[in-house]
């Protein structure tokens, strides 16, 4: 699956001779991840009339973690959680964004993202590539309190953006308020308090007609 | 100087009744900082034909810190340094970006940014606002190894972008390679190794005509 000949951004302006080999690998990776700024998400920004990109989203999550960590149901290491949110979407550089409300897009998501992770983290010196891969696996597997809290931030942040947009992606055709509640419920795996707040916004949005009422909900 | 009546982003879609007061303040701040995604810097992206914004820039620095911390001349706390880079540009939400090579723009920068900090961090619950203000002051004052390393990342990242753009802001009229070296020299306050690499790129850029040769340099 991996395309061995994928051109790297750094190939456009190769670094000069004389750059230390390890630093060369690190700079190559750091230039390549500039691509995250071009991966568009579905969520609309609050402050401008355009969609958010993955780098902006990741920064926003990283700002949320220390401010909202006090609501975590289990103690979390804030710095570690920040690391997880900073890199959680990196694989989308090669695998693309998978919209939350598009079941078809999720079918081969895991496989595409694993290939992307091998390729992207493989640009780094081996020890650092392995470290980032472990962090990404941790986020994906959600076995640690930090990974669950990171995932909660990943769901809560677009919820805030959608609230501000009076619907946003909640208005996606075919999506109901029940679907939104189902997709966002993982917030509750990390924090009952934050999920209570998230529910309040989703329920009130439904009441105002910003999402289509699903059957059998409050 | 402070405009008491500055409209907040959250005023466009106020949160519903029933949201806890502390969480209300935290969400208000988290929505307001969406503005960082609209503050444009001078640096050109590598991956797209546009300028970088502050949120993307801050995310990029946060990715650099753990990967390049091994080059710090003094031991640094990586998580703390990440916190500093994530918030270092927040005051530009109200104070605007101050271009590195524009001496006039820097004249009242400190005053504008202090007013902005009072206003922005004042949106948070008092304890958290104070905490973020302390972190921002630490970054500005550069008294700690973490603040010096954060500043080095802030200078090194656009250096990589400018290298990739074969000049970028190095081509600003009136700016010479000596000016670039002078502005970037703070990298050496945190890491001799990274400053050596930075110098290599600047010197090679000058040799290739991507910046105007200043007098008296190598």
TrEMBL record, chains A, B:
<dbReference type="GO" id="GO:0005737">
    <property type="term" value="C:cytoplasm"/>
</dbReference>
<dbReference type="GO" id="GO:0002953">
    <property type="term" value="F:5'-deoxynucleotidase activity"/>
</dbReference>
<keyword id="KW-0479">Metal-binding</keyword>
<protein>
    <recommendedName>
        <fullName>5'-deoxynucleotidase</fullName>
        <ecNumber>3.1.3.89</ecNumber>
    </recommendedName>
</protein>
<dbReference type="Pfam" id="PF13023">
    <property type="entry name" value="HD_3"/>
</dbReference>
<dbReference type="InterPro" id="IPR039356">
    <property type="entry name" value="YfbR/HDDC2"/>
</dbReference>
<dbReference type="InterPro" id="IPR006674">
    <property type="entry name" value="HD_domain"/>
</dbReference>
<comment type="subunit">
    <text>Homodimer.</text>
</comment>
<dbReference type="GO" id="GO:0046872">
    <property type="term" value="F:metal ion binding"/>
</dbReference>
<feature type="domain" description="HD/PDEase">
    <location>
        <begin position="50"/>
        <end position="168"/>
    </location>
</feature>
<dbReference type="InterPro" id="IPR003607">
    <property type="entry name" value="HD/PDEase_dom"/>
</dbReference>
<keyword id="KW-0378">Hydrolase</keyword>
